[in-house]
Amino acid sequence: MYYAEQALLKAMPKMLENTTTEILEDAMTEHLKQTEKQEKRLEKVFRMIGQEPEGKKCEAMDGLITEAQEILKETKDYTMTRDAALIIGAQKIEHYEIATYGSLVQLAITMRLNQVADVLDRSLVEEETDLMLTEIAEGYINLEAECETPYNWEKSQEEEEMEEESSYSM
Which has fewest Cβ within 10 Å: 11, 15, 38, 106? Predict the structure, then answer.
């Protein structure tokens, strides 16, 4: 998780600078601040168990970050569609963090490392960005994105007709 939080800290500024709406920018700024605190907490956990902070490559977080970066390439600048897609990417990251912190808390309890569990639980409790993103998406951004046509992942009528014609000629 230490690697995951560090990777997220590197990736979030680019996501943040590509938001369209102030409300999403605020939510992502808050998540960035939480991530910084969570990284510090993990360093505290390492000290509590007598280890040097060390991150091990996390393919899951790398994949989620890569996916979020692809969203930026596949959506138009300054659109609600981009913000809606960024919310989806951010929520996937949040769900991964929730699952991981929840598992780490339970593991610490099982190992009778109750103080470690308490520190990790603070990070788990902080993972409230998911709910905030859902409210933003459902209350505003998704509705606005729906009005943007054509969606950049939809094919135009002309593209569909060209595909149909080429399939008939085969």
Answer: 106
Cα separations (Å) of 156 from 41, 79, 83, 124, 150? 49, 18, 22, 44, 7
The residue to which tokens 């989620």 are assigned: 64
For 51, phi then psi, to 5°, come to: -120, 155
CB 82 within 8 A of CB 76: yes
DSSP 55: -
6 burial level (CB within 10 Å; 0-12, 13-18, 19+): middle
Q: Copy the structure tokens of residue 138.
A: 């459902």
pLDDT 10s digits, 66-114:
999 998 888 888 888 899 999 999 999 999 999 999 999 999 999 999 9
